[in-house]
Design brief:
The protein is built from 17 helices and four strands. The longest helix is centred in the C-terminal third of the chain and has 34 residues. With 446 residues, the chain is mostly helical. The chain has a two-stranded antiparallel ribbon. It has a two-stranded antiparallel sheet with strand order 3-4. Keywords: Membrane, Transmembrane, Transmembrane helix. It comes from Cellulomonas aerilata. This is O-antigen ligase-related domain-containing protein.
């Protein structure tokens, strides 16, 4: 660590020795930011990305170990499990309605879409559950955080190359991944104002900006409390995440950044808060000065009114949403079954998307899934005694709340990088919740 961050935590606040965290779990977390979301195993389709396959493998191992009595699945109880269970139950209910034809459109295509959504929810549940069960100390949490951030750093490097050199290294990945094909749908480059915004390995620049904002608090936590690895690399990862938010030129990314920083800063140590307040203007100035036109382009995007095509399209979709909900109010069209052929009909709001596809039941499940982990994380951060654990819980609350807020501005769970990053944060937030309870009850009783 450098001199200033080293003063933030005393030796007694440093991370204890780590216990083994499954390699498969760490590989899954790292892969989220490394492997392009558009490259899939063709027979499987959209659910055949590398991170999805690894997450489903995690689910298979967890279920097998439960069936063989190798672990107690009920031992690690935390709000994140409640949240993802609500999403899973609402998904199953809507899928059942779809399969019996109650939604009015049970075809091979709609059933396949429902199956893909169900696989995503199962993968998400696996990450939420296994992350919390595997992390038994702050050091274990740090190992998972490193894996998640290292993958995100690769994604940011791709975005930097795209933004600076106007070339797309994602195209080269296909040659290194035999058996995978481009599933399409990704938009690595999108013009906005005087610049072209980029996506890294994500599906769209919006997704890149939001995910980078969600992970920034964890990067700040690592800067303060994690001695493993080179300090310059920690700083580089943090700077890359901030640059990714800027390079996405996304209102959603800026909104996510504001929420993430606003929530996480109060839970940092006093010295760390001072460093953030001092360094933030310098970093922002450096980013805007190094990229001519960035400030004016981003300012124009943020200052847009209802005449802006993006905003006008969102507002224009509300009457269509009302009509679809009136037709199937309880369980919707079926999970994953809002598939507009016209880009102008994309809802750009996950809550509305869930309302249309899974009805009022799905909307409740989605709200609980996206919002409850952040609120629980805030409670854990407020009650934690250890500075490192308080900051960790606050960082995870910040990331999940940023995701929940930004889900108002894009259909977040339809984007594979966000859809797997979020449950990873929920699982780690559940682990922090359990660690805080251990502080309150040293004997480990619940």
């Amino acid at each position: 660590m450098t001199a200033a961050p080293a003063q933030v935590a005393t030796a007694t606040q440093r991370l204890p020795t780590a216990s083994p965290v499954p390699l498969l779990l760490r590989a899954t977390l790292c892969s989220i930011g490394i492997f392009p979301a558009s490259l899939v195993v063709e027979p499987i389709g959209a659910a055949g990305t590398v991170p999805m396959l690894l997450a489903l493998l995690v689910a298979a191992f967890w279920l097998t170990s439960w069936a063989w009595g190798l672990h107690d699945p009920l031992a690690a109880r935390h709000p994140g499990r409640v949240a993802v269970s609500c999403l899973l139950l609402s998904t199953v209910a809507s899928a059942a309605s779809l399969y019996v034809g109650a939604s009015g459109g049970s075809t091979e295509t709609t059933r396949a879409a429902g199956e893909r959504w169900l696989l995503l929810v199962i993968a998400s549940a696996a990450l939420v559950t296994v992350c919390a069960e595997s992390v038994r100390s702050a050091a274990d949490a740090a190992r998972c955080v490193r894996a998640l951030l290292n993958g995100a750093f690769v994604c940011c490097l791709f975005a930097i190359v795209q933004f600076v050199f106007s070339v797309n290294p994602v195209d080269w990945m296909q040659y290194a991944m035999p058996g995978f094909t481009d599933n399409g749908g990704n938009t690595s480059f999108q013009p906005r104002g005087a610049l072209v915004r980029v996506a890294g390995v994500a599906f769209s620049p919006i997704e890149l900006g939001v995910v980078a904002a969600m992970l920034l608090p964890l990067s700040l936590w690592r800067l303060v409390f994690d001695d493993v690895g080179r300090t310059w690399l920690h700083w580089a990862q943090t700077a890359a995440l901030m640059f990714a938010v800027a390079a996405s030129i996304s209102r959603s990314g800026v909104l996510g950044l504001a929420v993430a920083v606003g929530v996480t800063v109060p839970f940092l140590t006093r010295t760390a808060r001072r460093w953030v307040l001092v360094a933030s203007p310098v970093v922002l100035a450096a980013v805007f000065l190094s990229v001519p036109g960035l400030l004016s382009t981003l300012g124009g995007a943020l200052g847009a009114d209802a005449s802006d095509p993006s905003i006008a399209t969102r507002l224009g979709n509300y009457p269509r949403v009302v009509a679809m909900v009136d037709a199937h109010p309880v369980l919707g069209l079926g999970p994953g079954n809002y598939m507009p052929t016209n880009a102008l009909h994309i809802l750009d709001n996950q809550y509305l998307n869930s309302l249309v596809t899974m009805g009022l039941v799905g909307l409740v499940g989605t709200v609980v899934y996206l919002v409850l982990p952040g609120l629980a994380g805030l409670h854990a951060a407020r009650t934690a005694r250890s500075p490192s654990l308080r900051s960790l819980a606050g960082a995870l609350a910040a990331g999940t709340l940023a995701g929940a807020v930004c889900s108002l501005t894009f259909d977040s769970l339809s984007f594979p990088v966000f859809a797997l990053t979020f449950p990873a944060l929920v699982g780690l937030s559940g682990a922090a919740w359990l660690l805080v309870r251990q502080e309150e009850e040293p004997d480990g009783s619940h």
